[in-house]
Amino acid sequence: xxxxxxxxxxxxxxxxxxxxxxxxxxxxxxxxxxxxxxxxxxxxxxxxxxxxxxxxxxxxxxxxxxxxxxxxxxxxxxxxxxxxxxxxxxxxxxxxxxxxxxxxxxxxxxxxxxxxxxxxxxxxxxxxxxxxxxxxxxxxxxxxxxxxxxxxxxxxxxxxxxxxxxxxxxxxxxxxxxxxxxxxxxxxxxxxxxxxxxxxxxxxxxxxxxxxxxxxxxxxxxxxxxxxxxxxxxxxxxxxxxxxxxxxxxxxxxxxxxxxxxxxxxxxxxxxxxxxxxxxxxxxxxxxxxxxxxxxxxxxxxxxxxxxxxxxx
Length: 313
Known about the structure:
Rhopdopsin 7-helix transmembrane proteins; mainly alpha; 74% helix
């Protein structure tokens, strides 16, 4: 039987990596295959359905659902950048990935992750404008501003990933080629590089941290003002209505930012492949799957549009 991986000789450049995944036990891999296939299909189906509903129902042609549509596109790309490769490896037991394929996977995963961070910040600002400045909401969130905010999120997210991927491509890999993870990501690749990764780690903290923490701070500041505005509403019904418009977004924010900050905003010396490999499952697979469920269950507009579409079918 061919060994799982070959040892890399000193001075020999790595041309491929081995993605061990979350388990080496065949029975556990079979269970994981079923679970992640289900998650992937739900993420694809749910986010595609959200996009169709938004496109078909004119009542949802407003800023909040414009950004939600962008988020659905991101979530489809987010899960597609890692899950199909993992599912194939569980079935075929071929865990190899080329150097170029590894960097490409990392680029798209970080790109979609960065765009998601920024979009969640933009959506928090949208809820701030709607609740704190309802009379001027149309001015704050006019179509031109919405397109500019969404485009900025995409451009910054892609640029952020380009910086990390470009700097990663300059590193040399001549040690062990085994990645104890289910996809290629910055922290485990730093561990395998035989180059000085200090500049890359600084870029992760400064550039990547700026995207993550900047979006997180915008979100938190927005919710400080939102909560203050909701508290001042005199009626209980009014407070509940105002809170319901941002409850789904707040739920997603807490799950997403909590896990992604813990993964990337810490020194490389404290990174543990075994300990930290589970966190990307939460923000890279479960969150994209849960987003359409959370937003559809908490939004009467989406539910109404869904029932309307089903009635036409």
